[in-house]
Amino acid sequence: MESEMPVAGVNWTVVRRQVVDEMVELLLFYGDMVNTRGYVMSWGSCFSSRNAYHCATARLKKQGMIARRGDRYGPAQLVALEAAHGRLSDFYRADKFWGRRWNGVWQVLMYDVPESERSYRDALRTFLKQHRMGGLQRSVWVTTTDLRAEYHDLCEASQVDAYSFLMESRTLLGRSNQELAAEAWNLTRLREGHTWYLETYRRRMRAVQLGDLPPESIIHTVREELAAFETVTQDDPLLPRELYPQNYRGEEVLAFHKDFMRIVGEAGVRQWLALKKSARARKQPRQQRQAH
């Protein structure tokens, strides 16, 4: 059989990381549900292939984030260890960022890298993304976090100071701090994503609560919600609260996500146990007839 041709433009390193991250989240937040045996709420339906499943588990075991545990009363199950929490997005710890005190000083990173120096450009882009910096112009980026030590380390490792420099400023473009934040991180678009997520998954959660979704659909709803949550929060700069507009919905998104995990996880387990009990009840009379 011929192997399938890789899809153009797909970054397979990112794809593998997303599979691993999804496994961590499912185990941390939906362990009881995804570990149930039988029916479709099993690991077999959580991954696109058995190979993806085995690669993800092997990588996480090696990193000390998950383990396989069991006893004589049932099959071994995967469990997330304490170290797995460190793999989660910073948005799960957003309260720490929103609540921090800011001294009013902006860190401004400016650079001008020739097209021929791709390695310097890549190093700087990675730095910008890691620290959730906001772009005022193509080569002017800002943050409220003191990055002097991190920038020094980057310069030592990659010599990017040949084409960039970091400075501090209390005012930029003659605008208020809130106006500057809204432009640097496009907080209007961020709110639109938050609103879509809340409206969509509130409906899905109500459907689960009312029993409108069959058990085989719940695990897919869970995975879909996790992906949507990551998508609408990955570009949130996690600024101090004073810099967000009054209509910012990030805190609402995080609170709802926690409710969704709890409510949908509990509903999934209840539905699976009810199905299991019903199957036993149907099986028992048949066994009794065979005995006679």
Distance between the termini: 52 Å
How large is the share of residues in beta strands? 5-15%
What does the largest sheet look like? 4 strands, antiparallel
Number of strands: 6
Regions with pLDDT < 50 over 5+ consecutive residues?
Answer: 1-15, 37-42
**Helix content percent band:** 40-55%
Question: What's the pLDDT, averaged over the residues?
Answer: 81
Topology pattern, helix = H, strand = E: HHEEHEHEEHEHHHH
Backbone CA Rg: 24 Å
Please work out how many helical segments DSSP would assign.
Answer: 9
Q: Please indicate the count of domains.
A: 3
Describe the structure.
- The protein is of the alpha+beta class and 292 residues long.
- It has 3 domains: 12-87, Arc Repressor Mutant, subunit A; 105-169, Alpha-Beta Plaits, CATH 3.30.70.240; 186-278.
- It is built from 9 helices and 6 strands, in the order ααββαβαββαβαααα.
- It has helices at residues 12-34, 50-62, 94-98, 118-130, 148-158, 177-185, 187-209, 215-233, 250-291, and strands at 66-71, 74-80, 106-111, 134-137, 140-143, 164-169.
- A 4-stranded antiparallel sheet has the order 4-5-3-6, covered by helices on one side. A two-stranded antiparallel ribbon has the order 1-2.
- A hairpin with a 2-residue loop joins strand 1 (66-71) and strand 2.
- The N and C termini lie far apart (52 Å).
- 23% of the residues are buried.
